[in-house]
Amino acid sequence: MRYFLTKVEVEGFRGISKRRELELHPKLTILIGPNSSGKSSFIEAIEWGLVGDKVPREVYTKRRRTAIRNKYTRNTEVKIHYNDGQGRGFVIKAHLPRHREYMPEIDREGPLKGLVAAHIGFKDYIRSVVYAQADPRVIIEKAEHLNTAIDSILGLKAYKDFMKCIEECISKVERKEEALANELYKFKEELTRKYEGLIRKIEKIQSILKKYGIDPSQVSLKKIRDELKKLIPPDYKGDIPEDVEGLRRTIEEFKKLWEITPKLPTYQQALLCELEQEKKGLVNRKERLKSERTKCYEWLQQLESLIKDLSNIEEKLKGKNLEKLRSQLAEKEYQVRQIDNEIKKLNSMIEEMNEEYSIVEKAWNFLKKSKKAYCPVCNRELTTGFLRKRATLEIIEKRLESLKSEVEDLVERRDKLARELKDLNNERDQLEKQIEKIEQLQRERNKFRREIKNLLEEVSKSPRIARALENPSVARELLNETIRRIDEEICNIEKEIKRKEKQIEDLKRLIEESRARAEELSREKLRKMDIIYSELEYILLHKSVSRLEDLIEKEPWKLLEKFICKLEALRLMLIKLMNITKEVHESEAKEKLKEFNKILDDVYRALYEHPYFKHIEVRLKEIRSGTEPNRYDIICISERGEEEGIDVLNTSAQNAISLAVYITSARLGLHPLSILLLDDPTQTFDERHVRKLAEALEKISEDVQVVVATADERFQKALIELFYDKAYIYKFEKDWAPEEGPIFERLR
Amino acid sequence: MSVLGEVNMEFKYKHYFLLRKAHDRDPKMFGFFIQHLLAFALCEELGAIITHYGRTDRHDIKFRLNDKLYVMEVRTTSEKYVDIHDMYERLIYEEGLRRIAIFDLTFPTRWLIVKLDKLYPARYLIPSLMNFLDTDLTQRIDNVFPRVVHRYYDLFEKHGEGYIYELLKARNLIPSR
Fold this sequence. Notes:
CATH topology of one domain in chain A: Helix Hairpins
Structural class of chain A: alpha+beta
Shape of chain A: elongated
CATH architecture of one domain in chain A: Orthogonal Bundle
CATH superfamily of one domain in chain A: Helix hairpin bin
Number of strands of chain A: 13
Number of domains of chain B: 1
Shape of chain B: globular
Strand order of the largest sheet of chain B: 1-2-3-5-6
Oligomer: heterodimer
Largest interface: A-B, 38 and 25 residues
CATH topology of chain B: Trna Endonuclease, Chain: A, domain 1
Number of strands of chain B: 7
Distance between the termini of chain A: 26 Å
Strand content of chain A: 5-15%
Structural class of chain B: alpha+beta
Distance between the termini of chain B: 59 Å
CATH class of chain B: Alpha Beta
């Protein structure tokens, strides 16, 4: 039972713009026509529709996308109809939408649904079949591709995948092992650090104990308790616990108590405080008195200076009568006033005289000038006559002279009086000054007296103050008396202070002695406590060390180690398994190759007649690990049994070999859908070999569905001759519009 | 409660610190020192008779214990891996029970006496060698080894590795050349 394609529908793929349908013969379909008439587009469309694009998605470019798509249509779609051999038809749909960059998935119906997943080799297989194209030499030169092709033909892909799985497993196991080992070593390091730290601590404590002269091996809890009982401080009330933690706490408490004990206050200290306070009071009082005394001295000085000033003033005041001076002053003032009046009178008189003089002078001048004259004095008309006039003038002259002399006298008298007035004024001023000074002195005296009174009132309240005011010597005595009293008091206080100081010193010495005694005691106790504490710590550390050692004894890492061991065993097993798989793989490949070689040889001989190298054979060269394909060699064998590489052959023979490989792979029939697509296979063949290929196709098409496209006229002729009745033959036209798509018609 | 018993005990893993100290002092000589200590442990504690003892020869120790002949190669390691390429070559052609004695210096230190029969030359994780252990001999040596270390460490510290070798020779524990 074999599947076969019945119809292909193509739209928007490469050269085919509008929808075209091509019905396929179950055995052979022939596409003939000149170059670039659209044959290869159909062949490629069938390949694309079956297995998708040959360029993988990772290297898919824009150029490739435009190569697949047709310019004139929006959609790119290929539908392949196929029959499952029981008369049921299904469709394979490949569709590349305009907005997509890559075809998402081929939609398959019927038995081919999920085909790629089910048969891993199918894709490579189909592709290898399809590649029997124009120049197969390219493929032979690309040995890697041939290797993959033969691998997939022989069905060794499963072994490859299995081996890859095992390798991955091994690497995973190794990684896991490594990680676990890391963890283990980390854990061990931590353990080491802990253990080392404990041992170091123990050694330190041991050295301390040896310094105190204690044998570390003789330490015990009971001993510690007994010793602790002797060290109970006076303030402690309670029992000594038995457990280690309790003991530790008790020791810490004891330590604190013993540290405090020597610092506690005693009744002697209280006494000392009292005494010191008393002494302080006395010293304060003494200071106060001293300051009072200095004040008194200051007052005394003040008093002396005051008294001195006072006596000076009084001396100055002696023999000076103020009232007398005042009466003198009044007299002088009276005199001054009189003289002043006189001077005023004289002044007015002088003015009058001056006026008279001026009038007389005028008259005289008038008379002198005029012929007829009137007496300027008596205003009478003078009788003409020179004598009279002369007599008058003389009178007037006399009068003028007298007036002049009078005025001069008056002026002299006035000047004299003015000088007198000045002297008098000076005298009066002096007197006034004297009076003022005396008054000031009197004020000062009063002030000093008041001050002295105040002073004395402050010092004492003796009734003698009143007298002291009058007599300054009494005040002096009073002050001196006060100072003497203060001195006496200070003397007494100093004596008292000395006594207190002596008492304090004695008390202090006593206190120091007792404290030193207490401190020594507590120090001794604390040292003992330290020893006990380190002993206790020693015990504790020992316990923790023994606990840790117990833990190490149990070997907690053993489980991890076991697991690592198991992983190692697993790794070894996997390696073994891989080796075995390799061996099986090799033997399987060799066996399969035998069958393959048989068919290959037949096909090759049917296709080509080489004069010397009659047979060919494929040999396994190397089994490779992982996803890399195994390596194969194609060997030519002559009739004598000589073996040569494929490079010895000519181009047409190489072509024939590659065609033979692909035809063989198709004929082996590894998959129910076996189809051979041949696109211009007759390049470099001469007419004889073209004929042979056409004849070979007849035999091949019995087993495999074949689609052939060719532009070779010889081949076309041969094919039409041979298969005119047995196959579908499509003839493609040369002239066709790219918007419309290729034009073809079926001959048969 | 008395803790006298606990106090008196020796620390079982303290020899690790001694060996670590020796290793830090001179890692090159440390390998020889460990080999000498193993020889002491075998002869003095387990009663083995050494028939071949080489410092720089083909294999390290050949000895007879409980009527069995052992051939041994000694190595110390403080890493996670051990390579047994050259040891494999040295031992593979020898007669007797072929063993590799690996002293693992990670805490707590231990001996791994590995059977060579199932191993092939490669690099092995230390814990994964437990699959190929000669358990009986390993345990016996591990039990007595700390005692030997405590006994001879002071001498090593004072006089060096050569002195220990001379001591082995002087006590007729190893055959003189």
